[in-house]
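Q: A reviewer asked whether we had any structural model of the full assembly, not just the individual parts. We don't, so I'm hoping you can provide one. Inputs are below.
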Amino acid sequence: MQTYVLCSQCDLQEGACKCDRYCCYCHGQQSVRLCMDGKYYCPDCREACEISVVPTNDR
Ligand SMILES: [Zn+2]
Ligand SMILES: [Zn+2]
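A: Here is a predicted structure for the entire assembly that you could use as a starting point for your response.
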């Protein structure tokens, strides 16, 4: 099962997204990752919102 979550700004997957990435919550730029709702979150806010990172399709 694969989940494709697209960046809410450019409708591309995280790997293709060239947006300026910052946490949608605190606007921090450190270690932000695309999460299941199509927005970027830093680790702290991810934890606070209990939202999970989009799984990458690494082998
Ligand atoms: Zn984007
Ligand atoms: Zn944050």
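A: Points you may want to mention in the reply: Residues 20-59 form one domain. The first helix runs from residue 43 to 49.
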